[in-house]
Input
Amino acid sequence: MENDAPDSHLPMLATPQAERLRALVAESVRARYGAETGLVLAPDAVERAGHLFPLANLARRCAEAPDADWPGLVDAHVAALAEAAPGGESAAELLAGACLRLVPADEAAGLAHPREVAEGLRLALALASPDSVRLLTDEEVARAGADELWRAGRRALTREPMRHEEVRLEGHPVLCSVYGDSPFVASRAVLLPEVVAEVTGRRMPDAGALVAMPTRHLLAFHPIVDGDAADALTDLATYAARAHAEDPGPLSPRVHWWYDGRLTAIDDARRPPRELADVLRALSALDQAGRLASAGSTAPPGEPFAAALAHAFALAESDPDAARAETWDAWLAAQDRGCALFPHGKDGEPPAAEAVPEPVDDPARAWLDAFYVTLVTRDRERTTRLCEVPAEALRGGAPVDDYVLHWAEVLRGHWLRRPVDDVVDLLVTTIKASHPDAETLAPKDFLNLVDYQPVALFHRLLTHDHEAFGEALAESLVRHAGHWGESSAPRARVALGPLALACLAYDMDFPVRTDLPYLPKYLLNRQRLEVAPDRS
Output
C-alpha cells in the first residue's frame, strides 16, 4: 500500500483503509435512511438525533478482518445504530454506563439535568457503550438517582483513556495537548486539576490554567505560572479556533480560564476578564524584574543587571558547582551592575549627578537581588552600602507588594545591627503581609514557593536554630524545584534567596550542607573566592 501512515482520526487503520471504511459507512447509511435529515457522518463517528456512534470499535474489527468482510461488518454496525434507542436500561445499567459529557448548550436543550460550566457549555450525564454514546433523559436520571449518576459519571470520566504531549515551538510558550479516541477527552476539562497533575506531574497552580476544548477529542492547556501565560492565551485562541472549525465533533472555539473550580470563557484573547488580566499583569511585572525571565528573553532597557544575573544563573547548567573562574567572574559582574543601580554619597549625602542610574522598573526586587548577590560574593562593603540606600529609593516604578518592602527592611535592619526587637517586629509584619490569605500582586504560587522561602530561612537564622535552618533550607529547594519544574529559565538553575541566606548562615558557623541542588558548592563554601583552578 502506497500510504500506510495511520489515519489521523482512526489511527488503527492506514489512511486509505479509513477512507474506504467511511465510504462503506456512508453507503450503508444512505441505503437504510435515504435522505433522512438529522444524521451526520463525521470522520470518526456517525451522529443521529443527539446519539453518537463512534467508528473506533468498528475500525478495530475491520483492521483484524479480511477486506471482503468489511461490508457485512459495516451493515451490522449501522443496523445497531438504527435499533439503538433511549430507554429500556435498568437503573443498574444506567449507573454502570454513566459518564460525564461536556456538550455545547444547544445539544442539551430540552433537558433539565445538565449543569452550566461556562457560557455556551453544559455538563450532562451520558450513557456510554463501546458503540454508542447518548445523553440521558431527565426521566432516566430520576429513575437511577441524580446524585448516584453524577458520582458514577465522574468516576467513569477519570478512567477515560487519553494521550498527551508537549507542544514546543521556538519563541512560544509550551502547551500541553491531550487527545485520544475517546469522545470524552475534552470533557476531562471539568477535572482539569487532575489532568494537570497526571500530565505534568505537578499540582494546578493557584492562578489556575488556560484551557481550550475545541472538539470532543482534543484538550489543550497551559498552567499559569509565569509571564508566558499572556502569549499562551494568544496561541491557545488560534489553536482553538482552527481546530473547532476543521475537526470533527466541534465543542467550543473559545479559550477558558480554569480558576478556583470554575471555567470562565474568554471572548477575546486581547481583552481577558479583569481578574485574569490582573494576574497576567502581575506575572509580566515579575518577568520585567528579571525574576522569571525565560532563557531567550532580553532585559528591559536600563536593566543590564537583569541580563548579567541571568548570565550568572545560566552558567550553572554547565558548571553547577561554580568551579570555573568564568562563573565567578559572572557573579562579580552581576554584583557590580546590581550595586550600580543604587549609588549613594558619603555620610548620607545624595549621589553625584553622574552616578544616578536609569530608572528601574521594580527597584525593590532589584535591590533584593543585588543584596542577595553581595551575600554570595561576601563583599561586605557592598552589602553595607546597599543597606544604607534610603528606603524611598526602593519605591516607585511598577507596583510592588508590601511584603517585598517589609522584607527589604528586615534585611537592612539586621545587617545594620538595629535592635533585635525592631528586626523581629519587621519580620512579623513581613510574614503577615505574605500570608496566603493576604491580597498580593504576586501570584500565590510564586510567593509561597519562591519569594517566601528566604523569609522562612531568616526566621531560623535569627533564632540560631541550626537543625531547623537545615530542614527549612532543604524544604526551600524542594519548593524551588516544584515551582520551576523543567523550566529553561536561568533563574530555575539557582535558588538565589536560599543561596544567599545559606551563605550568611555558613559564615555564622551553621552546619550548612554544601551538596544540595541549586546551591553552587564553591560559592556557598567560599572556596571560589580563593581558588581559581581554571586560571592556571
